[in-house]
Fold Putative beta-lactamase-inhibitor-like PepSY-like domain-containing protein.
Amino acid sequence: MKNLILTISILGLSLTNISAQDIHQNEVPSVILNNFQKSFPKAADIDWEIKGNLYEVEFETGLLGDDHKVLYSRDGKLVRHEEEISKSNLPKSVVTSINKSFSGYRIDDVKKITEGRKVIYNVELKNRSQEWKVVFDAQGRILQKRED
């Protein structure tokens, strides 16, 4: 059931990409802009889009330019936050699951995705001959995996 909900969420967000429209920051409602600036005061390289009924902002933070993507509802509530993190910031439960289920694979690309109180980790795993994209919950359970 969780996989179905996750798949539907991902599909729904990907379908909104079809109707995405770039906008200038001065076109973003002030309630959204204020919440964004309060939550991410050090954001740089900021790009805004409207996707359906949501406002999406992509930006970077930190010395290494960690990528972020945040979706806001029209009333200024943060709906989803996707951020690039280092593999050292993965929860031990996720690392344990990777070591058990993907022995011999290296962790290549990690994203932490937060929707409300739910946190998932999207991890790219590679070895010499295969590449997997795997979604884990915070407890290290595999929610979805696909060969890339």
